[in-house]
């Protein structure tokens, strides 16, 4: 399906870009006289309704006449129509490929690109990487930006052909010199990484800075990193913060992570552990694994950093908990129960948040609430309440709750002693691999 949509895009792009060079009335005599270019332009006019009403059958008639005289653009159009099965043309993949090959052989870059796509993906034709790369090379040599970028991607990825970073850089540069913004970013990125070219951060800046002025978010992120990493470019922390913050507020976890790195590794006012932790916390909320690792490392490094990490994590969870997120409510309860980031545990506050999450059906919160009622921590001891919450969690396959419920039935605490029920709940926990339940059953 993806390939078909690519072909539809190609046809749509042609419709937008093309147009007859003259009105049909001015072309008709030349077309009827057998001039292939006039026949192609007349077909284009009928296809898009320029200077005349749209008439697909007439468009196809003139395209076919032109194609039979080796007019490459007409051959390309017929190739697309046969591939797609549109405009009254029955889908015929071999014939579509044949027309594309005729057009491509005459140097038509779009046909060359299309054939390359077909052969590299192996959808409409058998996969033939060598043929696909050959057509890409021919199109790229003619200056096709699309072909140049595709070649760069294939050589850099190294899956269809052996990785060749120098070739990837060379083709990205060719497209970049034709003002393609994506290629310009990739040239800057490859200078930054030293891929296919000697690493040169100053040269990377030359390519990235103009893109930043045009609003390219990827360029802001990379340029922000360069300005604080102090590798061949004079550090500019203020500019780095501005660039990274602009990318971060648009939801980039990587930008938040880089801001954390900046304030963790920076100098002067830009070395600030609390600021670093705050940015890492935001990145971690956006599922950035590196940020989670840095938070853990900072927390383990010193007590003060650990307290700051816990404080940031707590506030992030509290913000979501207040808005009704049950997982965040549970997490806030855990912070309070363990006293993470606080002088001591606050069981009453923990019970409040566990209750909110438990009322929304969160099994772990239901189990924890049961333990608080069983032990009288933060709430009055109430075995009936403990059994209630354990039972709700146990029914959701929480093994700890199933074990707790089994032991209560076994010992007759809060419920009437019932060996059958005790065994049932202990067995359910044991079946999930819960070791205490397996041990309890073995001792019976």
Q: Which short descriptors sum up this protein?
A:
444 residues, mainly alpha, 25 helices, disordered N terminus
- Range of helix content: over 70%
Question: Would you identify the regions where 5 or more consecutive residues have pLDDT less than 50?
Answer: 1-9, 11-17
Oligomer: single chain
Class by SSE composition: mainly alpha
Helix-strand layout with pairing:
Blueprint: H1 2-17, H2 24-32, H3 36-48, H4 56-67, H5 72-84, H6 93-105, H7 109-121, H8 129-141, H9 145-157, H10 165-176, H11 181-193, H12 201-213, H13 217-229, H14 237-248, H15 253-265, H16 273-285, H17 289-301, H18 303-322, H19 326-338, H20 347-359, H21 363-375, H22 383-394, H23 399-411, H24 419-431, H25 435-442
Helix pairs in contact: 1-5, 2-3, 3-4, 4-5, 5-6, 6-7, 7-8, 8-9, 9-10, 10-11, 11-12, 12-13, 13-14, 13-15, 14-15, 15-16, 16-17, 16-18, 17-18, 18-19, 19-20, 20-21, 21-22, 22-23, 23-24, 24-25
């Amino acid at each position: 399906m993806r390939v078909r949509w690519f072909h539809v895009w190609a046809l749509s792009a042609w419709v937008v870009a093309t147009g007859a060079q003259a009105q049909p009335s001015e072309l008709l005599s030349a077309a009827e006289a057998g001039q292939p270019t006039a026949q192609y332009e007349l077909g284009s006019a009928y296809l898009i309704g320029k200077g005349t009403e749209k008439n697909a059958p007439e468009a196809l008639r003139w395209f076919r006449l032109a194609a039979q005289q080796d007019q490459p653009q007409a051959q390309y159009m017929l190739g697309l129509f046969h591939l797609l099965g549109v405009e009254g043309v029955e889908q015929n993949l071999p014939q579509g490929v044949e027309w594309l090959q005729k057009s491509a052989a005459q140097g038509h870059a779009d046909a060359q690109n299309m054939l390359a796509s077909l052969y590299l993906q192996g959808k409409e034709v058998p996969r033939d990487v060598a043929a696909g790369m050959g057509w890409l090379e021919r199109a790229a040599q003619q200056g096709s930006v699309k072909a140049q970028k595709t070649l760069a991607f294939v050589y850099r990825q190294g899956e269809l052909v052996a990785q060749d970073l120098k070739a990837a850089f060379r083709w990205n540069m060719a497209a970049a010199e034709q003002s393609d913004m994506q290629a310009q970013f990739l040239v800057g990125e490859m200078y930054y990484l030293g891929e296919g070219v000697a690493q040169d951060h100053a040269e990377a800046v030359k390519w990235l800075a103009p893109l930043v002025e045009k609003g390219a978010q990827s360029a802001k992120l990379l340029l922000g990193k360069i300005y604080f990493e102090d590798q061949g470019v004079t550090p500019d922390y203020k500019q780095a913060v501005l660039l990274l913050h602009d990318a971060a507020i648009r939801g980039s976890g990587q930008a938040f992570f880089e801001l954390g790195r900046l304030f963790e590794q920076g100098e002067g006012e830009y070395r600030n552990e609390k600021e670093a932790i705050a940015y890492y916390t935001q990145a971690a909320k956006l599922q950035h694994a590196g940020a989670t690792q840095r938070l853990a490392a900072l927390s383990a490094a010193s007590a003060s950093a650990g307290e700051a990490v816990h404080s940031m994590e707590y506030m992030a969870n509290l913000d979501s908990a207040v808005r009704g997120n049950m997982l965040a409510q549970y997490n806030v309860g855990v912070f309070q129960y363990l006293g993470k980031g606080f002088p001591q545990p606050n069981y009453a506050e923990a019970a409040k948040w566990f209750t909110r999450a438990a009322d929304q059906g969160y099994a772990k919160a239901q189990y924890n609430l049961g333990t608080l009622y069983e032990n009288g921590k933060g709430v009055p001891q109430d075995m009936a309440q403990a059994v209630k919450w354990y039972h709700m969690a146990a029914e959701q396959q929480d093994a700890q709750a199933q074990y707790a419920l089994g032991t209560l039935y076994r010992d007759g605490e809060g419920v009437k002693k019932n060996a059958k029920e005790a065994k049932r709940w202990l067995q359910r926990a044991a079946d999930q691999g819960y070791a205490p339940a397996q041990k309890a059953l073995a001792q019976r």
